Amino acid sequence: MIYWVGRKGCGTVTDFTKNVIRIIQTIPYGKVMTYGQIARAAGSPRSARQVVRILHSLSEKYGLPWHRVINSKGEISFRDEEMFINQKLLLESEGIEFITERSLSLKNYLCHIDPEF
User: Over the stretch 10-45, which tens digit does the pLDDT of each residue have?
Assistant: First the structure.
């Protein structure tokens, strides 16, 4: 069982959260997934914002490759310039090329997971 400690105390992690963590951990080097794609694969298609919250609160604890998660337009979503640059540099270090300052080709870099995941 996975436990978490947050601002509201301790608790158990939901099945959705466990699935999100497992899916993000499987994103291969040089590939990306979208928040919505992860939410669908984890069993809750309308929970892309929850994926954002999970990444924010649990990336460090579970060593998640947070930089491989982008929005459905193929763009880095961070508005904070330092976080944006950090994510972009991490993706570029994996061989991902950007077609604009903020976006990459989903056709070339999107990771497709087994629907039975």
Answer: 566 799 999 999 999 999 999 999 999 999 999 999
Q: What is the pLDDT of residues 76-85, one digit of tens each?
A: 999 999 999 9
18 SS3 class: helix
Domain ranges of the chain: 12-109
State the Cα–Cα distance between residues 19 and 26, nearest whole angstrom: 11
Q: Check: CATH 1.10.10.10 for 12-109? A: yes
- The H or E element that residue 10 is part of is strand 9-12
Which whole number is the average pLDDT over 58-82? 96
Helices 48-62 and 15-25 sit at what angle, rounded to 10 degrees?
A: 70
Amino acid identity for residue 11 in this structure: G
50 half-sphere exposure, CB direction, 13 A CA radius: 19
Alpha carbon distance 105, 99 (integer Å): 7
CB atoms near residue 5 (< 10 Å): 10
What is the C-alpha separation between 9 and 109, in angstroms, rounded? 38
